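anyone seen this seq b4? input:
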Amino acid sequence: MSAAPAPEVPFGRMLTAMATAFHADGSVDLEQTAAIASHLVDHGHDGVVVSGTTGESATTSDVENADILRAVRDAVGGRASVVAGVGTNATPHSVELARQAEKLGVDGLLLVTPYYSKPSQAGVLHHFTEVARATEVPVMLYDVPGRTGTTISLATYEGAAALDTVVAVKDATGDFARGVRLLDLGYAVYSGDDHAHLGWLAHGACGFVSVAGHACGRELASLAESFLAGDHTGALDLYRRLLPTFDAMMSVPNYGATTAKAALELLGVIDNRHVRSPLLPLDETEVAALRDGLAASGLL
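predicted toks r here
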């Protein structure tokens, strides 16, 4: 099958929502956080998302967020795009974080639907508008109703598409048909669910914002390259190979930062898997299952 034209990629094709490393006392470990960013860029990534859900942004302060961004920018800036998570459920706070990230020289902003408050769609659009207009930095909206309690409506997407800086969507809804409509509105669509990556490519997505990419960045980049080159069989074979890793990293109740850090520890990138409460690190049984999943995918 011949290759289709590759979709435009405003932030790169292979990104991971990277974990934030902590010391045993709970303070941010900037050295190991920078090491995570370098590991990702050395292993197939052309972008990283900092201070998203996997970065435990709900538990980090604004000062810590700035320090984390500086450390990552210094480690990989110029080699990969750096996208800063600025989503909160308080619009003025998100505006403040967006302006802070702009001053620190990021390449993009990740803006999640306001969580917990469950605003109306008019409220969601107002939030997006206020934050997007606060800076000149390109924005990727993030739709993850399983965590926020609110799904972005197509009408809200239509309204946000009129904002000059809103260029992309990280979608974790699994609604492929709606994704095609987002493409028609001019958005670059990124898969936000590792299990759905291949399906999103088939529906026109430009790339991934992954969690499993902590362990398999090169493989995911190759999967996208194969699919876009028209080698759909090769892409499917690679997807099958990675399924044990997707399952192991995404199927525990407290997946995300916990599984990402445990995988990085198993790979020797960091020397611990500390997380901040209310998250708890994977126990030894969970780590063993993760090790088996990585091994089944040929990553260990």
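The longest strand covers residues 166-171. The chain has a mean pLDDT of 96. kinda curious what u guys think
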